[in-house]
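Review form for a predicted model. The reviewer records the input and the model, then writes brief findings.
Reviewer: anonymous (R2)
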Amino acid sequence: MKKRLREQRAIFYSVFRWVILATFIGIIVGVATAIFLTALNKTTLMVRQNTRYFFLLPCALFLSWFIIKKFAPDAKGHGTEKVIEAIHKRAGVIKLAVVPIKLIATVITIAFGGSAGKEGPCAQIGAGLASFFSRIFKFDDYDRKKLVICGISAGFASVFGTPIAGAIFGVEVLFIGSILYDVILPSFIAGIISYNVSVAFGIKYFTYPIELIPAFGKTIFVEVILSGVFFGLCAFFLIEMLSFGKYIASRIRLKEWLKSIIGGLLLIVIALSFSDKYLGLGINTIESSLKGAMEPWYAFILKTITTSITLNFGGSGGVVTPIFFIGATAGLLFAKIFSLNTILFASIGLVAVLAGAANTPIAASIMAIELFGPQIAPYAAIACVISFFITGHRSVYPSQVLGIRKSRYLNIKLGQEVEKS
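Model under review:
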């Protein structure tokens, strides 16, 4: 009896402790996210009053590279990857300097047309603040890692307005095929609090509830399965293009600062040759795609290329917003080829490409419900899981650790990072 009482006291203490800690992390990350998004929106509006804003891309990528190189090298690339690496290799230790530097570098990159996302910086900012908080109170490695994961969840939840998906993303993105159940409670709390704090600061989020969804049947079931395969291949293409861009950048025997200028010039050429819609966040294209407006068939290919150039040639930012663009426009193409519901498959594509590229099928499926309504759940879930398997043991986050084999016929060593498999 005494043993059971001790166990219950320990559990109650643990729950109460992490409710308090996660609430605090949610508040500070929600505030930081609101500051970041406000700065990004205002800077973007100011810069883009000039229709040729992207002509300053070489300067923007150079400035982004210089700030990161000089003040916080850990802020390089897309933030979520660096956080995953810190959790697996440094017990969640992240330098506080990463927070302001990541914010500034990302605002510069995206505002002037760099193709990057806003979730990576928020995840890295949230994780950086959580890591700093853990050092102040001298938490051990275990608690620090839990706090940093809460920071990821809070950042993701507040940047897209998807508190449940954000919470799951934080615990699902660390491993391929494995979830840290002991962090689920604080991650949920941090994500929900962070989201509501950002809303209180006036941050607006988009949702597109889909009303006209076909009834479940044999035909739509087959169509969704085929779409899952297609979206998995799109995610595969994105992963390989990011890796190829990194390889090309490493093979160019020039100074890093000169590479950033070259990257900016390449983006200018693409914008002048096609359109500037493939630069920046691409929110307008994402929204129009979700309303069924058609885009060129090559839209998702060009967005993949501009994202790879941006992130491998000095730019700072995340990958999830570009993934949304890629998924939504790829969904339009799939629907057009087979004469299907464009709105439905653009919506499924948005989350399914995320599931495959980031290896987060559960978070992506829940995100579909939060963004598009519960009616889409069975279709989105099927496509997300298929996309997850189609990409194989690859990821836009090379520091993810393999927790499962996606096929029993593959000789994959579990417990190692994706980039080493």
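Findings: The chain has two domains: 2-200, 218-420.
Further findings: The first strand starts at residue 175 and ends at 176.
Recommendation: see findings above.
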